[in-house]
Specification:
The chain contains 15 helices and 16 strands. With about 425 residues, it is an alpha/beta fold. Among the domains are: about 150 residues, 2-Layer Sandwich (Dihydrodipicolinate Reductase, domain 2); about 80 residues, Alpha-Beta Plaits. The strands form three sheets. It has a six-stranded parallel sheet, with helices on both faces. Helix 3 links the parallel strand 4 and strand 5.
Length: about 425
């Protein structure tokens, strides 16, 4: 796209984000962009835009030579990919907010961008209003990027906030989130952690050059977090967040996962409440930096789409520097984590060998242990079954030096009722 060229937009989807973009564009005349046509599924539905803008025929947008940008903000991942693919091959620039589609088709999307030379931007898919992708692309060299920790799902964060601040159970908090529009009627992608894992999979590419789907690293959601877990965290002066993490280890490999974690008040992520998102980056020279903003909502998400559209006017493209111009780093599961693991009965307790157990509680209600465990011990599904809840401790990473210095902690507590296989 030539510098300063006007944007003629074909928009797919007119839900929360699509309508937000329509509103934001009307208030941003300096962008020099207009929506020519909007493709939707149900033409009979009343919408807050002129009727002549709408069509149900995708080809009206994809085959219009005047339309030079396709914006895709629909929920159907398969349909979204076909739209993006056709648009790129047809010589159009593309902006998307569909994290599931991007995560599931990332390798092919990289190929299409290289083949067509067109821009495919998707800032809104990662952290809604937070400009994290552009910063990872332009600011952080992967040799200097030590770690990333983030809350990237507003639905789960809203639920956890309700559980902690109002002392309600998971199901009640979920119902409130659904009533307020922060969670879908089928909330499984959010509460099971898959939405956050989808986002994390392509953020790892921009941060470290790593290409992987969500199946390439450990992840879980908040579905098994019990009110008793929230009470224990509060006793330890912590809150719980669903935290996506990546850390460059001493050998150069990267540990990555998306798991619930207890966070202390001084942790910037403890400040991230309700539907907000936050990203903490630690690098060699800049030390620690914190990005914070709304992770859901019409105008906040639309603001990221608007920013991508603005960037297209100046020919901006993701260069994927860490993937194409550096030596991409590799994921590893050779690391230890410190975790709180709770369960209803000792028979459901973890059947895995921890490096040590720091604490265990066998009260009449929910039981728990705090232990250091190797990531390979989480390769199975025992920690996602039978009501078991695994929540990382505030200092989640256990170093090799910690293991070597563990001493007598390197065995199970002698009076623990747990038995190892």
């Amino acid at each position: 796209m030539q510098n300063h060229q006007s944007l003629v937009i074909g928009l797919f989807g007119f839900g929360v984000v699509g309508e937000g973009l329509y509103t934001a564009l009307a208030k941003t005349p300096s962008l020099n962009g207009r929506i020519k046509k909007i493709c939707i599924r149900d033409i009979r539905k009343k919408r807050n835009a002129p009727e002549e803008l709408f069509t149900t025929d995708k080809n009206v947008l994809l085959n219009d030579p005047e339309i030079n940008v396709i914006v895709e903000v629909i929920s159907d991942a398969d349909a979204a990919f076909e739209i993006v693919r056709t648009a790129l091959l047809g010589g159009k620039e593309v902006v998307s907010a569909s994290k599931k589609m991007i995560a599931e088709n990332f390798t092919e999307l990289l190929r299409l961008q290289r083949e067509t030379g067109r821009s495919f931007l998707y800032e809104a898919a990662a952290g809604a209003s937070i400009p994290i992708i552009r910063n990872l692309e332009e600011y952080y060299d992967n040799d200097l990027l030590h770690s990333m920790r983030a809350v990237v799902n507003g639905s789960t964060n809203f639920i956890l906030t309700k559980m902690f601040e109002e002392r309600v159970g998971f199901r009640e908090a979920l119902l409130v989130a659904q009533q307020l529009g922060f969670a879908e009627s089928d909330p499984s992608l959010d509460v099971l952690g898959l939405d956050a894992a989808n986002k994390w999979s392509f953020l790892l590419t921009h941060a470290y050059g790593i290409q992987t789907g969500p199946g390439g690293f450990l992840f879980n959601g908040i579905q098994d977090i019990d009110a008793a877990d929230a009470a224990v965290a509060a006793e330890k002066n912590c809150a719980i967040r669903l935290v996506a993490q990546a850390r460059k280890l001493e050998n150069g490999d990267v540990a990555a996962f998306v798991l619930p974690q207890m966070v202390r008040p001084a942790d910037p992520l403890a400040f991230v409440r309700n539907e907000y998102n936050g990203v903490v980056i630690e690098s060699g020279f800049a030390d620690r930096q914190f990005f914070y903003g709304k992770g859901a909502g019409s105008l906040p998400t639309a603001s990221a789409v608007l920013s991508d559209l603005s960037a297209l006017r100046y020919g901006y493209r993701y260069e994927y520097k860490k993937l194409y111009h550096h030596r991409p780093l590799a994921l590893t599961n050779d690391f230890y984590l410190r975790a709180y693991i709770s369960f209803n009965d000792w028979h459901d307790a973890p059947r895995a060998k921890p490096a040590w157990v720091e604490e265990w509680h066998g009260g009449t209600q929910r039981k728990f242990i705090v232990c250091a465990i190797h990531a390979s011990q989480l390769a199975g599904t025992w920690w996602k079954e039978n009501g078991v809840s695994l929540i990382l401790a505030p200092d989640a990473f256990v170093t090799p030096e910690d293991i070597a210095a563990a001493g007598e902690k390197n065995v199970w507590l002698r009076d623990s009722p747990l038995e190892l296989n």
